[in-house]
Every structure is written in C-alpha cells, then in structure tokens.
Amino acid sequence: MGQDRKSGKGDTDGDAVREPSQAERTRQDILEVATREFAEKGYSGARIDEIAALTSTTKRAIYYHYESKQGLFIAVLENAYRGIRALEATLDLDHLEPADSIRTLAGFTFDYQWAHADFVRLVMVENIHHGAHLEAAVSLRNVNVPILDAVHRVYARGVATGVFRPGIEPIDIHMTISALAFFNVSNRFTFSRIFDHDLGDPAIRAARRSVVIDTVLRFLQADAPAAG
Prior knowledge:
Residues 24-84 form the HTH tetR-type domain. Keywords: DNA-binding. GO terms for molecular function: DNA binding. The protein is mainly alpha-helical and 228 residues long. The protein has two domains: 19-67, Arc Repressor Mutant, subunit A (Orthogonal Bundle), CATH 1.10.10; 80-220, Tetracycline Repressor, domain 2 (Orthogonal Bundle). It contains eleven helices and no strands. Helix 3 (59-66) crosses helix 4 (69-88).
C-alpha cells in the first residue's frame, strides 16, 4: 500500500500529476521571458544576454536548451501557435450547428488575440522577416492543419443544410476571421489616435466583437452575393 518511492507509482497507478523537472521549469521560464522580449523588441532588438538576466538561468543555459537565438525564437513561435491551436481544439465545433460553430470560433479568435497581444506582435515580427523562422520550424507545419480541417467540416455541414453558400475555400474563412480579429490588436493605437475611437474601451470592444462575428456570418450565409 502507499507510494512506491522507487517507481514513483502509488495506489492511483500513475494518475498523480507529475511535477515538472528543473529543466522543464527552466525552459518554460526562458520561453515566457523570451516571448515578451521578442514581442516588444522584435527579433533584431531582443538580446540573449537580457533574456538570461531576466530569468533564473544563464546565457549558456539558453544556448544549451535552444542552440541559438534563432532556435529560441522558433521555440517561442511554436509555443505561441500551439497555445491558440490547443484552445481551438476544445471549442467542440463539430457538435454545434454550423452558424453557431462559426459564431463561437470568430468570438473565440477575437477574444484570444485581444487577450494575447504578444501573439499578434510575434506574428507581425515574423512577417517582417518574411516567415523565415517559420520556414525552418518543421514541427509547426502540422500544428495549424487541424483548424483548417475543423473549418472545412463546419462549412461543409453548413452548405449541405443550406445555411452557407457554396464556393468558399476554408482557408478564406479562416483568413477572414483571423484578419478581422488581428486588426483590433495590430492597429489598436494608431486607429484610436487617428479616429479618436478607443479600441481599448470595453463597450467599443464589445461592439466591435459583435461586428466581427456578424461580418463573418454574412460572408458565409446562403443568400449573400458571391464575390467577384
């Protein structure tokens, strides 16, 4: 009875939560700090020395875990994309009516990107570098496939039931949702200054969220005019 100290197993047969190792904690600490640094200062502006100084580790340890500055940035990008994709997978889109699925996905994307401004900034930084680091991130190529598959299934159900009009590519649906949500973070301060329209105001943000969802649904609805 009780816990087997040698095997680490107890009566729950491995159900107990495994404590992260020191190496895992160190990597997570580095990733969290590096995410902030790259998001705020860009790839060129972020410094490994400063990231090391802000963590409970050393520059040598960072290179041990990630090999180079590029390796660390790729790890940051991978972590960022895996974060949003993991939460998208919990939305249960296949068990909602097609319109409700799109409404849920669009609302989630809007909320996630607003709450994770660093994610938006990292994407902007990577676009400045023409996607060069993502090109090297082989493991990421399959991470983003599930969201397109999910959108495809929802859209196909919507077309089959007459809710959505045919002829739209799933990637265009995903791109439209992403773009409408992305803008509110990427252009928040310039748009707010130019038009005196504070996108950070909760009431304005809530209204904008409704507009984004409504725009996506109108784009897809069966009686909408075809683009061209």
